[in-house]
Design goal:
- The protein is an alpha/beta fold and 159 residues long.
- A five-stranded mixed β-sheet has the order 2-1-3-4-5.
- Helix 4 runs parallel beside helix 5.
- The longest helix is centred in the N-terminal third of the chain and has 15 residues.
- It is globular.
- The structure holds zinc ion (ZN).
Length: 159
Amino acid sequence: MDKFMHQAYEQAKRGQHEGNLPVGSVVVNGGIVIGEGRNRQHQTSDPTTHAELEAIRDASSRTDGKDIIGIFSGATCYTTMMPCPMCAGAIIRFGFTRVVVAEAHSYADSGTKPLMERQGITVDVQKDEQCIELVEAYLKTHPHLSTTMKSPKPTDLKL
Ligand SMILES: [Zn+2]
Protein backbone atom coordinates (compact mmCIF):
# COMPACT_ATOMS: atom_id res chain seq x y z
CA MET A 1 0.00 0.00 0.00
CA ASP A 2 1.57 3.31 -1.05
CA LYS A 3 1.41 6.49 1.05
CA PHE A 4 -1.67 7.87 -0.72
CA MET A 5 -3.66 4.65 -0.35
CA HIS A 6 -2.48 4.42 3.24
CA GLN A 7 -3.98 7.84 3.89
CA ALA A 8 -7.24 6.67 2.29
CA TYR A 9 -7.12 3.53 4.45
CA GLU A 10 -6.70 5.65 7.58
CA GLN A 11 -9.74 7.67 6.51
CA ALA A 12 -11.70 4.43 6.06
CA LYS A 13 -10.81 3.26 9.57
CA ARG A 14 -11.78 6.66 10.98
CA GLY A 15 -15.12 6.41 9.20
CA GLN A 16 -15.68 2.96 10.67
CA HIS A 17 -14.98 4.27 14.18
CA GLU A 18 -17.66 6.87 13.52
CA GLY A 19 -20.16 4.10 12.70
CA ASN A 20 -19.94 3.99 8.89
CA LEU A 21 -19.11 1.48 6.20
CA PRO A 22 -15.30 1.84 6.10
CA VAL A 23 -14.47 3.63 2.85
CA GLY A 24 -11.81 6.34 2.54
CA SER A 25 -10.52 8.44 -0.33
CA VAL A 26 -7.86 11.03 -1.10
CA VAL A 27 -7.56 13.30 -4.12
CA VAL A 28 -4.03 13.78 -5.43
CA ASN A 29 -2.92 16.29 -8.02
CA GLY A 30 0.62 17.31 -8.88
CA GLY A 31 1.91 14.69 -6.47
CA ILE A 32 0.23 16.18 -3.40
CA VAL A 33 -2.95 15.40 -1.51
CA ILE A 34 -5.48 18.17 -2.13
CA GLY A 35 -8.43 16.57 -0.36
CA GLU A 36 -9.42 13.62 1.78
CA GLY A 37 -12.68 12.10 2.92
CA ARG A 38 -14.50 9.13 4.34
CA ASN A 39 -17.99 7.71 4.32
CA ARG A 40 -19.98 9.86 6.78
CA GLN A 41 -23.55 8.74 6.12
CA HIS A 42 -24.11 7.59 9.70
CA GLN A 43 -23.49 10.98 11.33
CA THR A 44 -24.82 13.17 8.49
CA SER A 45 -27.93 11.18 7.47
CA ASP A 46 -26.94 12.36 4.00
CA PRO A 47 -26.75 9.53 1.46
CA THR A 48 -24.34 11.50 -0.74
CA THR A 49 -21.57 11.66 1.87
CA HIS A 50 -19.53 8.89 0.27
CA ALA A 51 -15.77 8.96 0.73
CA GLU A 52 -15.00 10.08 -2.82
CA LEU A 53 -17.49 12.96 -2.76
CA GLU A 54 -16.30 13.99 0.69
CA ALA A 55 -12.70 14.08 -0.62
CA ILE A 56 -13.88 16.21 -3.56
CA ARG A 57 -15.77 18.54 -1.19
CA ASP A 58 -12.71 18.81 1.04
CA ALA A 59 -10.45 19.71 -1.89
CA SER A 60 -12.89 22.34 -3.19
CA SER A 61 -13.30 23.81 0.28
CA ARG A 62 -9.53 24.38 0.45
CA THR A 63 -9.66 26.67 -2.60
CA ASP A 64 -11.65 29.44 -0.88
CA GLY A 65 -14.05 29.35 -3.82
CA LYS A 66 -11.39 29.74 -6.53
CA ASP A 67 -11.25 27.21 -9.36
CA ILE A 68 -13.38 24.67 -7.48
CA ILE A 69 -13.60 22.36 -10.51
CA GLY A 70 -10.30 23.05 -12.30
CA ILE A 71 -8.30 21.66 -9.39
CA PHE A 72 -9.46 18.16 -10.38
CA SER A 73 -8.18 18.34 -13.95
CA GLY A 74 -5.66 15.51 -14.29
CA ALA A 75 -6.18 14.43 -10.68
CA THR A 76 -6.05 10.93 -9.26
CA CYS A 77 -8.62 9.59 -6.81
CA TYR A 78 -7.27 6.98 -4.40
CA THR A 79 -10.14 5.10 -2.87
CA THR A 80 -10.37 1.99 -0.74
CA MET A 81 -13.41 0.58 -2.57
CA MET A 82 -14.59 0.58 -6.19
CA PRO A 83 -16.58 3.83 -6.66
CA CYS A 84 -20.36 3.63 -6.91
CA PRO A 85 -22.18 5.17 -9.91
CA MET A 86 -22.72 8.49 -8.08
CA CYS A 87 -19.04 8.92 -7.25
CA ALA A 88 -17.89 7.63 -10.65
CA GLY A 89 -20.10 10.31 -12.20
CA ALA A 90 -18.37 13.04 -10.20
CA ILE A 91 -14.96 11.61 -11.07
CA ILE A 92 -15.87 11.73 -14.76
CA ARG A 93 -17.54 15.15 -14.54
CA PHE A 94 -14.64 16.90 -12.82
CA GLY A 95 -11.82 15.71 -15.08
CA PHE A 96 -9.99 13.08 -13.08
CA THR A 97 -7.65 11.00 -15.25
CA ARG A 98 -6.89 8.12 -12.88
CA VAL A 99 -8.58 6.18 -10.12
CA VAL A 100 -6.62 3.82 -7.87
CA VAL A 101 -8.91 1.33 -6.14
CA ALA A 102 -7.64 -0.70 -3.19
CA GLU A 103 -10.28 -3.37 -3.57
CA ALA A 104 -13.03 -4.30 -5.98
CA HIS A 105 -14.01 -7.43 -4.09
CA SER A 106 -16.80 -6.00 -1.93
CA TYR A 107 -18.39 -3.83 -4.59
CA ALA A 108 -17.07 -5.20 -7.82
CA ASP A 109 -20.00 -5.53 -10.15
CA SER A 110 -21.57 -2.10 -10.28
CA GLY A 111 -20.30 -1.44 -13.78
CA THR A 112 -18.39 1.69 -12.83
CA LYS A 113 -14.94 0.42 -13.86
CA PRO A 114 -15.85 0.09 -17.56
CA LEU A 115 -17.91 3.30 -17.32
CA MET A 116 -14.88 5.30 -16.16
CA GLU A 117 -12.52 3.54 -18.57
CA ARG A 118 -14.76 4.45 -21.50
CA GLN A 119 -14.26 8.10 -20.54
CA GLY A 120 -10.48 7.64 -20.80
CA ILE A 121 -9.87 7.31 -17.07
CA THR A 122 -7.23 4.79 -16.01
CA VAL A 123 -8.59 2.52 -13.28
CA ASP A 124 -5.97 0.58 -11.30
CA VAL A 125 -7.31 -2.12 -8.98
CA GLN A 126 -4.81 -3.22 -6.36
CA LYS A 127 -6.59 -6.12 -4.57
CA ASP A 128 -5.31 -4.85 -1.22
CA GLU A 129 -5.84 -7.50 1.46
CA GLN A 130 -6.00 -5.00 4.34
CA CYS A 131 -8.81 -3.06 2.70
CA ILE A 132 -10.68 -6.25 1.77
CA GLU A 133 -10.43 -7.47 5.37
CA LEU A 134 -11.58 -4.11 6.71
CA VAL A 135 -14.78 -4.19 4.66
CA GLU A 136 -15.43 -7.91 5.03
CA ALA A 137 -15.19 -7.63 8.83
CA TYR A 138 -17.64 -4.74 8.78
CA LEU A 139 -20.10 -6.59 6.54
CA LYS A 140 -20.10 -9.60 8.88
CA THR A 141 -21.56 -7.35 11.57
CA HIS A 142 -23.88 -5.57 9.11
CA PRO A 143 -25.32 -8.40 7.00
CA HIS A 144 -28.11 -6.26 5.52
CA LEU A 145 -25.42 -4.18 3.74
CA SER A 146 -23.66 -7.30 2.59
CA THR A 147 -26.75 -8.44 0.70
CA THR A 148 -27.05 -5.09 -1.08
CA MET A 149 -23.37 -4.83 -1.96
CA LYS A 150 -22.91 -8.41 -3.11
CA SER A 151 -25.91 -8.38 -5.40
CA PRO A 152 -24.97 -6.64 -8.64
CA LYS A 153 -28.38 -6.70 -10.30
CA PRO A 154 -30.05 -3.66 -8.64
CA THR A 155 -27.11 -1.36 -9.34
CA ASP A 156 -25.70 -2.79 -12.54
CA LEU A 157 -25.22 -0.01 -15.04
CA LYS A 158 -26.53 -0.56 -18.52
CA LEU A 159 -23.57 0.23 -20.73
ZN1 LIG B 1 -20.05 6.52 -3.91
